[in-house]
Design goal:
Two copies of one chain form a homodimer.
Chain A (H helix, E strand, L loop, with lengths): L9 E4 L7 E7 L3 H8 E3 L12 E8 L5 E10 L10 E7 L2 H13 L3 E2 L4 H8 L5 H12 L3 H11 L2 H25 L4 H37 L1 E7 L5 H11 L18 E4 L2 E7 L8 H15 L4 E7 L3 H15 L4 E7 L6 H9 L3 H8 L5 E5 L8 H12 L14 H22 L4 H19 L6 H8 L7
Parallel strand pairs in A: 1-7, 8-10, 8-11, 11-12, 12-13
Antiparallel strand pairs in A: 1-2, 2-6, 3-4, 4-5, 5-6, 9-10
Helix pairs in contact in A: 4-5, 6-7, 6-15, 7-14, 10-12, 14-15
Chain lengths: ~475, ~475
């Protein structure tokens, strides 16, 4: 591994703009001496003469002996720091003018402005954490729900790494047995005994890797939100419903630009579960050609969803359901479908009570596709009636298993891909053993499996491109 | 002074949302014990058993023995802390979810969520700083230019307080001499000797207070920006000019909602000087009645400005200047007037070179009002030609004196008002002495002068309403 530019001293503003307090981090072999150049303690020795894990009050000296700020400096010495290097943290008043001035002074005295995630990258390069733990730092900062927080916390604290380490031990044991078999390959009776033990171990390994691969669908839903498509004709009230849903919970809607994700769609946290709403173009009742194009586009988006909200105007329920049911129903297989009978306030009184009791679409749909498993709810999106009930249905439809901080759940696409490759390799190992393939060929697949597991935690095999991709989406100062 | 609720322990998130690091402050007599309840050090004793000014790594314990975050806790013991009370600062990963969880745990264990500025208010109530220093904390955080930063830093570090303290000593000396005079009022020869010394001291005091009052125009311009009105007919290019000015410097335009100010208009920092642009409605060439209403409205805003940019369409310079000059010129007395000849690219070539060398409005205006002191510049706002030159003219027109960190400049309206009252009182003292008013009457005015000076630094005379007004505009966590 090419140890990228870890020889210099980096600095970055680690807090967002606009608070009462702003913190600047400095890390590298000159961190303490450079900080000493711009900082005068209110009393006592300079930082170089102080113990680590102490705080020192004093001021930052600007040019022309002006005082830039009164600050508190935290002192750390490698390897007992986040990065594993000598580090300081300068806690200033939260003025961007002051923070910029302090940054300029640090740079003038020999620091370099850190890139995204460079502190965590150094922590990884200096052996303070493995790659999956480093990735969890970004996930932790981006976490917006109890479940995503739990997953990231377990991963950051090494839960996933321990699981992988146990797998690695088992695989190494398997490999050594395989090689033992190779050494004694003349003794046929020895081979048969080993092969039985080998396939038992391989089967255990396969089970664990398979479990991890399977956990990704849950992990991904927790991290990025359960994808919910809202479909329906344009006049059915799709936008009104989306607004009603989002406004209800606007306070906890996350607009944070992902540290590990690119762009986030409208997401909403309902009872600790993150939902991600997929915008589909309303299906218009125009000429047949245009309509089918509109339907096709919406349906492509629908395919990404695991929950589908089909919004229907209650005043023309039959027409709308009949117009789309043959196209909607087949596409919803394997998904949770919720029929949202909107505008139930606009149905006349007699009908309305019916509508609330047993929505008019029920029989239509049941007769159309009796095998389809769906829920139905009547709402009035504009008046925000029934929204809470709809949210309950969404939570029920999400049906995510409870994740505790002890559960290892894969939520990272890179890990998922590496595990999938590892799973393929272990399958080849099992297949090879079942058809009596020679030990050296099986051994190759075992090594490939080990390689893919090692990719996750990183190390000597990790190249700069992989590192670059991982850390470029971190925030500055982390 | 009613010591407002300083008996409980407060907590607040002190950093803005979205950074790599988030900090929670805790202050009050239970700060350390409450933090201990939710925090487990990675090794060693609990916080209660540790020395102040140390950092401890460990984790925050949530419910069901879940780990909320791995954190660093800073420890302070009163009176050696910002608030003067026992305090901790919990440095977490910058996730709003985590910060909210930690806040909830603190509150569940006996903390109260702090109001705006409550930490600084406690620092004041506990005698760590006077009121003018407390106010400077908010100014420091809001500072966006070198000059506003210098003013706030001087005030926070007690420069203003020292000046006031010297004034107070002089006034107390004067008062004691006056009372001495009262005691010996039978001895006429003694009185005359004293009166001469008294008026000398009173004159010194008057000089200092007057200087401080006068400095407010500079201080206010530095803090809130130099008010610049852009006037002109709607088709003259007023909006284009404003956009050109702002876009040029968009990167350093401040959108921070003031901690001590209410709403900030469009402001721009040019070469370290803050300008505040006052929007005036364009004067329309419609019927006479409407036009005059439009002019009146714009002129009311013009009155607040110290610099006036009069934007004129070069292609109809004569008409536009003649239409408004009789109304503009008299209102610009005491202000800096800059004639901005816009659209100079649209004048034909021969004229254009004229326009650039000597703008066509020059002679017109000079003949109209020969005594008026003004500058003139040709620009093409749409093409952004001449904008840099216009900025130079603005900086020149600003003509702010250089402020150093040793200069005491008043920038706070509350201080300005108190000083103005103090000035009136000292004037009455001087008047009383000159007309030979009896010592006890003069003494009353001296005490009033002292009272107004004391209002600035605060103390026993400060009531809750004043405190409330000062701290309500602080940010939370400060």
């Amino acid at each position: 591994m090419n140890i990228l530019y870890t020889d210099d001293t980096i600095c970055a503003i680690a807090t967002a703009q606009g608070g009462a307090i702003g913190t600047i981090r400095v890390s590298g072999k000159e961190a303490i001496t450079i900080t000493d150049k711009i900082f005068t303690p209110a009393s006592g020795p300079t930082l170089s003469g102080r113990k680590p894990y102490t705080l020192t009050f004093g001021h930052i000296n600007g040019e022309n002996s002006e005082i830039v700020d009164e600050v508190l400096v935290s002192l750390f010495r490698g390897p007992h720091s986040y990065t594993g290097e000598d580090s300081t943290e300068i806690s200033c008043h939260g003025s961007s003018y002051i923070l910029q001035q302090v940054m300029q002074l640090l740079i003038k005295n020999g620091c370099r402005a850190a890139g995204p995630g460079e502190f965590t990258q150094r922590a990884f390069l200096n052996g303070k954490m493995d790659l999956s733990q480093a990735e969890a730092v970004a996930d932790l900062i981006a976490s917006t729900s109890a479940a995503s927080h739990r997953m990231a916390m377990n991963q950051m604290r090494g839960g996933f790494s321990r699981e992988l380490s146990q797998l690695r031990e088992k695989l190494l044991h398997l490999t050594s047995l395989m090689e033992l078999e190779l050494d004694f390959s003349d003794h046929e009776e020895l081979e048969f005994a080993d092969r039985s033990e080998l396939s038992q171990i391989a089967s255990q390994v396969e089970g664990v890797i398979n479990g991890l691969v399977q956990s990704f669908s849950v992990g991904n839903a927790i991290k990025n939100g359960i994808p919910v498509a809202i479909i329906g004709e344009t006049n059915a009230g799709k936008s009104t419903l989306l607004n009603a849903l989002l406004n209800e919970e606007r306070a906890i809607v996350s607009d944070i630009h992902g540290t590990t994700r690119d762009v986030i769609e409208d997401t909403m946290n309902i009872k600790g579960i993150l939902f991600r709403f997929i915008d589909t173009a309303g299906i218009r009742e125009t000429s047949d050609t245009i309509e089918s194009i509109g339907i096709e586009r919406s349906f492509q988006k629908l395919d990404q969803a695991s929950i589908v909200l089909w919004v229907i105007d209650s005043t023309e329920a039959e027409t709308q359901i009949n117009a789309l049911k043959d196209k909607v129903i087949p596409r919803c297989e394997g998904k949770k479908l919720i029929l949202v009978m909107n505008k139930c306030d606009m149905v006349n009184n007699a009908e309305q009570s019916d509508c609330l009791k047993e929505p008019s679409g029920a029989t239509i749909l049941t007769s159309a596709d009796s095998g389809m498993n769906y829920e139905m709810i009547s709402i009035a999106a504009k008046q925000r009636e029934g929204i809470t009930e709809l949210q309950k249905l969404l939570v029920k439809a999400a049906a995510l298993p409870e994740v505790t901080q002890n559960d290892v759940v894969v939520s990272n696409v890179r890990h998922y891909e590496a595990l999938s490759h590892a799973l393929e390799a272990i399958h080849r190992v099992q297949e090879g053993m079942s058809i009596g393939l020679s030990g050296d060929l099986v051994s190759q697949d075992l090594r490939e499996c080990l390689f893919h597991l090692a990719e996750i935690v990183g190390g000597e095999i990790t190249n700069d491109e992989v590192l670059g991709n991982i850390f470029k989406n971190f925030c500055i100062g982390k």
